[in-house]
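Researcher: I'm preparing a figure for a lab meeting and need a structural model of a single chain. I don't have an experimental structure, so a prediction will have to do for now. The sequence is pasted below. Please return the structure as C-alpha cells so I can convert it later.
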Amino acid sequence: MKPSYSLSNDQKLKICHHKAANPSIKQSALANWAMQEFKLSKVPTQGTISNILSKRQQYESMDSTELTSKPRRVALLGDLIKEKARQFARQLELGERTPEFSNGWLAKFNIRHGFKAQKSYGESGSADLDAIDRNMPTIKEKLQSYSLQDIYNMDETGLFYHMAPDRTIARRQIEGSKKDKTRLTFVFAANADGSHKMEPLIIGHAQRPRAFNRKSGEQLGFYYRSNAKAWMIGLIFREWLQKMDQQMQDANRKVLLLLDNAPSHLVRDLPLTNVQVFLFPANTTSKIQPMDAGIIAAFKRRYRRFQLQDAIDRDEQQKADIYKVDQLIAMKWAKAAWNDISSKTIANCFKHTGLFERETQKNEVGSEEQDIENELKDAINQLPISRPMSVHELINPEEEQQVAHEEISDEDLIKLSSSQDQEEEEDGEVMDENPPMLTKE
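Model: Understood. Here is the structure written out cell by cell.
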C-alpha cells in the first residue's frame, strides 16, 4: 500500500489521545510517532500537529462517519492568503508591526503550515464506475421529471488561445502561460435537446486587457469576468447562476441544471426560484457529464480551425510568430466557435452519456465532427512544424483540463477583484479588429 500523508479525523483524534497519554511528549516526537503509526509518506509539520491538538474537542464530538472521512482538498490562491493576512493585521491593529506580506513571507507561511503547490487535474480517466452504476437510477429518475429542453448542463474548460500545434513550441507556451497570461477559462451551458446554448462566460486575468482598447468586456459584446489567475471562483459562479435563474424567470420556465461538485459550485443560501441544481456524484462526471461527452471537444475543434487557418495566412505573408493572437481576437473566435455548434451535436452528446434513452434513428453528427478533424489535419500538414501534434493532442491538451476552482468568502474575493482593475500588457503587433473567419463551402 502506498503511504499517505492525508490524515483522517480518526487518526487526528488518536494523535490527540496519544498526547494526552504522554503529556511530556514534544510535538516533534509526536509527529514522528504519527508518521510511523499511520505509515505516512513524511513527517507532519509542527504546525499541523499543533493545529490537530487544538481541535481535540471537535474530533471527540464527531460520529463514526465523520471520523473515518478525510478532509477535502481545497486550492488556495497565494494572493488571497496574503489579502486575508492583511485583513487580520488590520483587525488586530498591528500598526507599524504589520509585516509586508511579500512573496517571501508567503513562502515561509506555506512551509510552516505544510502547504505546497500542486496541479489540479480533471476527473477524466478516474471515473468511479461503481459510483456511476449505483447512482444512475437515481439520476435518471430525477431527469424524468423534466423535458429535454428544460435539462441543462454547465461546465468549465481552459484554453491556451494561441497554442501552436507543434509539441516543442506548445510545451514552452504552456509552461510560460502563467507569465504571459495566454490562458482563458470558458464556461459553457446548453440544454439537452440543443435548442438553447447559453452565452459563454469568459474568465481572464485582467478586467481590461490591452486588446480591449480601454473598453469593458460588456461593451465589446462579451460576458466577461476576471481575477488574478483566470479561475472559476465562487463569487463568479453564484453571479452566473443567479443570472441564469433570472433568465428562466423571465421566460417562465422551471429547469434542472446538472453540475459537477467542483469547490466553486456553491449553491447554498442562493434564492433560486426557477433553477434546480443537481450535483453529479464525485468521480463520475468524465463519463456522464454531457459537456465532457463531446460538447467542449466540439468547441475546441472549431476554435482551432479558426486559429490554424489564421496561422496559414500569416505564414503565407511571412509574418513572425504566426500563432500569436491577442485576447480579443481569441474571444471572437471562441464565441463564433460556440455559436457554430449545432443543436444536433449537443443533443447527441447528451444522449451519449447514457442518461437518456437513445433514439433509434441514425444520427449523422459524427460525420460533421470528423470533417472538421480532417480540416485540422490538412491545416497542420500545411504549417512549418518540426514535431506536429495529432488532432487529439491539439483538442485535448491535459493542461487545458486543469480548471482551477476556488471556494473563498465573498468579502475576500471582492477585495481581490478590486485589485485587478488594470490593463494587461501584451507583446507583439496589433491585430486586425475583425478576426479572420473560415467560410464553409
